[in-house]
Write a structure and sequence with these properties.
933 residues; mainly alpha; five-stranded parallel beta sheet; 48 helices; 4% strand; flat
């Protein structure tokens, strides 16, 4: 394998360098240039690879390529570089004049004699190249130009300035800012840029396809498009770090190759300069005031003027606008740490701690890094800093400070307490499940009595759920820890509140009424009173049919301030309370903030929570393409992060979109998958969600008997089962399928149960659906007309386009069956148009069928069938039709498989299909139509 292989993609082209190579080739072949080009760039940016690729491209077109490369140990050997370049032309020396022949013979070491004049050698070398070019064009390529010996550098400079109009070209490369003997004045230079973000991502994915998302993002941020760094940095990480099972270090270590490029430059600097660079690296802010004060603290003679050597070597620069020190490349800061001994690093941390007295968080971190022996005061400062940082959503930084605090804790009980809190945060938020397990074990060794602490058990429950999914055991462990705890039910005890929020979810997952009494007991014992959000979440999420309406006002007050919220855990918890009242739209921007934070390496569990809530809201508000894409993102996160338990949420959202589009096969397959996973684990809420999918898919297929069976499996007709909140979302499905199967009595009983639950107060969407249920269930035609009109006259019903279209369809069907054909046209046309806009083909066909049965023609629609596919859509469609999965397509086209899924949802309606299985026939038919025209 060649050294170039890691930088090449499947087409054997350098990743991300097509434009650079095209510019170089155009310059060297243009009749309007001097045919000489100096390539410059940062270390590791890929200059050698680009030279190689440019030379290969020229050779493939018949150009003769001559090469030379500067070598440090030959820099003192005169004409060693020229010897490398012209050695292949030694057979042509006899064609030179005797004067030129003798001079070049001696210079290249092919003959003996007095040292020739440099001008004579330069003319001889140029003539030799021009003679060679009479047979074919010649390209002279010189790499590492600063290491070329003085004599050769002078000859190359002479040649480079005299190529205009000839068939000889000159291409060289050197590090930006590097000194050497070559005089480049007046010669054109091309600065090779770093890879752009897309190319950098593609290179990393080609070489390291299994990197966790947040690790890849960190590497991309650190490498800043430097190809060598992109390829070398992952190799410095342990497997657990590459897969995000272990946190990454604050400063990424350098590989041997990267050290050879950067560390030597740091070690060549004066000691005072190195100290300032170390302080700047460890501080991270670049604030000149902090740097100046810390430099004086570390060494009384050090001042900002000592930065001059680093500025001259282009390692750093001073940003005059912000008054901050900026490293030219993040790898330089890594090299600074590599170049300094541990005792010097501790001294720098100590100096920074001394000057950061007004910044307790930063001061605590530096004290922790400067301290070797256990010190409870330092540990306490780190713990307090961790809590402040966690409130802003930076769980990774909070864990780092808690674990360092544990290391510095003199008492075993304090060490255990801090480790278990770090483990809980890791399991609950960051996705560091493996590290959480190790921290729990360390805590047990430090103090075995702490194994039953709330944070310890909560972390263990998270690990258990994501490993075995055993809800019953998770519930037993958590209840036991709460009941045996020493918290005294203090509402200000963070660990207790966290544990109860987790117990709320565990009880919900179980979906059985008998799981809830311990939660209610703990909630009632909290003093002075239970936290408002916890209390509201119970009322709106656990059994909203009985307690939801009474909590709507308090939920509204919480939502009034949600836009100011920065804690991702609280945002997700507010989202949980907002699911069944259908208030998730009020959290869209905060939820997106949590998701974006997660994509940038923030709390992964919160990232998943934000995605779940955006998907649920997106489905109800008709953003189905977004749901498809975010569901894929959620599934990928579940697969790569270890949070396998939560995958069913995203399968549910995908299935509901498929059922609503009319792709019942896909919907039912996903619902069966959820049931097969959830049933043996006792995750009854997931089973309820799967029944919902089956009910909607069955109605789409016109199988109302099967829909009724699934709807009543969650809650029997005439009642709303306790602690089965999803029964509310199946209400319309149950009543519609009951009416269509002539179960009028059951439908009427269910409408009465819905009214008793005051769902019109609880949720505006459920108010629309329960009103539709009441209109469907009455056998009095005039009453049905009145109820439909009242329901559809509610404000803002268009916020729920699919639900609104279903109610309008039911209205139109009822009017048509009552022979009010004229009145039926309006709601049926409105329903048809809504379904078509949503691409709900099966539902649109049902509305169109009713219109025709009423004697009306089906109006022109906004259906996109027949629209042309874009080139990318066609490529994706062809690959999907060939049998490739979304992930395989994404790898081939260098896009995410979420993007592939989103494109397919755009493609299906254009082709007039609803599933992947129909792609091949649809494409064949379209090609046949195109050829016929």
């Amino acid at each position: 394998m060649s050294l170039a292989d890691p930088l090449r993609d499947g087409a054997d082209a350098l990743v991300g360098r097509d434009q650079d190579l095209a510019r170089i080739a155009a310059f060297l072949t243009s009749p309007h240039t001097g045919r000489a080009l100096l390539l410059s760039g940062d270390p590791g940016v890929g200059k050698t690879m680009v030279l190689h690729a440019a030379a290969q491209a020229a050779s493939d077109k018949g150009t003769r390529v001559l090469r030379a490369a500067g070598v440090q140990f030959e820099a003192d050997v005169s004409y060693s570089g020229l010897n490398q370049a012209l050695f292949p032309l030694r057979e042509g020396l006899d064609r030179l004049s005797s004067t030129h022949h003798d001079a070049i013979q001696v210079a290249l070491g092919f003959g003996a004699g007095s040292p020739p004049e440099r001008l004579l050698v330069s003319n001889a070398a140029l003539t030799l190249l021009q003679e060679a070019a009479t047979e074919s064009p010649v390209l002279l390529v010189v790499d590492d130009l600063p290491w070329i010996d003085r004599a050769s550098a002078a000859v190359f400079g002479f040649i480079a300035r005299r190529l205009s109009g000839s068939r000889v070209s000159f291409l060289s490369a050197s590090r930006t800012g590097a000194d050497g003997f070559f005089e480049s004045g007046g010669l054109p230079t091309y600065e090779l840029p770093p890879l752009d973000p897309e190319a950098a991502t593609r290179l990393v994915d080609l070489r390291f396809p299994r990197l966790a998302r947040q690790v890849r993002r960190r590497l991309l941020d650190t490498a800043q498009g430097n190809p060598l760094a992109l390829l070398e940095l992952p190799g410095t990480l342990r497997t657990s770090q590459r897969t995000a099972l272990e946190a990454l270090p604050a400063v990424l270590p350098l590989s041997g190759r990267l050290q050879s490029l950067f560390v030597s430059r740091i070690r060549d600097l004066p000691a005072a300069t190195r100290n300032l660079l170390l302080l700047a690296t460890l501080d991270g802010s670049g604030e000149l005031g902090v740097l100046h004060a810390a430099g004086r603290e570390m060494d009384g003679d050090t001042g900002l003027e000592d930065l001059a050597p680093a500025e001259q070597d282009q390692l750093v620069r001073l940003d005059e606008r912000t008054r901050r020190l900026v490293f030219r490349h993040p790898l330089i800061s890594s090299a600074v740490v590599e170049a300094c001994a541990s005792n010097l690093r501790r001294a720098a941390h100590r100096a920074l701690a001394e000057v950061l007295t007004n910044d307790p968080e930063r001061r605590a971190w530096h004290l922790g890094e400067a301290t070797l022996e256990p010190d409870e005061q330092v540990a306490l400062q780190l713990e307090e800093a961790a809590h402040r940082i966690l409130s802003r959503g930076d769980a990774v930084a909070a864990i780092a400070r808690l674990t360092r605090a544990a290391d510095l804790s003199p008492a075993g009980r304090d060490r255990a307490r801090r480790l278990t809190e770090a483990a809980y945060i890791g399991a609950d938020a960051t996705g560091a499940l493996h590290s959480a397990s190790e921290m729990l074990e360390d805590a047990r060794r430090a103090d075995p009595r702490h194994a039953r602490s709330l944070h310890s058990v909560a972390a263990a429950v998270q690990l258990l759920l994501n490993r075995d999914g055993d809800v019953a055991t998770a519930h037993r462990l958590l209840v036991g820890a709460i009941e045996e705890g020493t918290h005294r039910y203090d509402a200000n005890d963070v660990a207790l509140t966290d544990a109860l929020h987790l117990l709320l979810l565990v009880c919900f997952f179980g979906g059985r009424a008998e799981l809830w009494p311990p939660f209610l007991t703990a909630l009632s014992r909290m003093r002075p009173e239970a936290p408002r959000l916890l209390s509201v979440a119970y009322q709106t999420f656990a059994d909203p049919a009985r307690t939801g309406a009474g909590a709507v006002e308090q939920l509204g007050q919480i939502l009034d301030t949600v836009m100011e919220e920065t804690d991702p855990a609280r945002i997700v918890r507010i989202g949980t309370a907002s699911i069944y009242p259908d208030r998730l739209s009020a959290l869209r921007e905060p939820s997106w903030h949590v998701v974006r934070q997660g994509r940038d390496g923030g709390p992964m569990r919160r990232h998943l929570g934000g995605l779940m809530h955006l998907c649920l809201d997106g489905y109800h508000t008709g953003r189905w393409d977004e749901v498809a894409e975010l569901s894929e993102e959620g599934l990928e996160l579940c697969e790569t992060s270890g949070y396998a338990f939560f995958a069913w949420y995203f399968h549910y959202n995908k299935a509901m979109v498929a059922a609503s589009l009319g792709d019942s096969g896909t919907a039912q397959a996903l619902a069966d998958r959820i049931m097969d996973w959830a049933t043996p684990r006792g995750v009854r809420s997931a089973v309820h969600y799967a029944h919902h999918v089956h009910a909607v898919a069955s109605i789409a297929e016109g199988d109302f008997e099967e829909a009724y069976r699934h709807a009543t499996a969650v809650s029997p007709a005439g009642s709303l089962a306790p602690y089965a909140p999803h029964a509310l979302w199946l209400a319309f499905d149950l009543v519609e399928s009951a009416v269509r199967t002539n179960r009028w009595a059951e439908a009427a009983l269910h409408v009465r149960a819905l009214g008793e639950a005051r769902l019109d107060v609880f949720s505006p969407r459920l108010a629309l659906l329960t009103g539709g249920c009441a209109a469907l269930a009455t056998e009095d035609e005039e009453e049905a007309v009145r109820l439909f009109e009242k329901t559809l006259g509610r404000p803002d019903v268009d916020r729920w386009p699919f639900d609104l279209a279903r109610v309008r369809l039911a209205q139109g069907e009822r009017l048509r069956r009552a022979r009010a054909t004229t009145d039926s046209k309006g709601p049926l046309v409105d329903a048809l148009r809504s379904f078509q806009q949503l691409r709900s083909r099966t539902w649109a066909e049902r509305a169109a069928k009713e219109l025709r049965a009423a004697g009306w023609s089906v109006p022109n629609t906004s259906d996109r069938t027949g629209q042309e596919l874009t080139p990318q859509e066609r490529e994706i469609a062809q690959l999907a039709a060939s049998g490739l999965t979304n992930k395989q397509i994404a790898e081939r086209l260098f896009i995410s498989h979420r993007t592939v899924g989103a494109h397919l949802y755009q493609i299906y309606p254009k082709l007039g299909i609803t599933s992947r299985a129909a792609l091949r026939d649809a494409l064949t038919a379209r090609d046949r139509e195109a050829s016929a025209t």
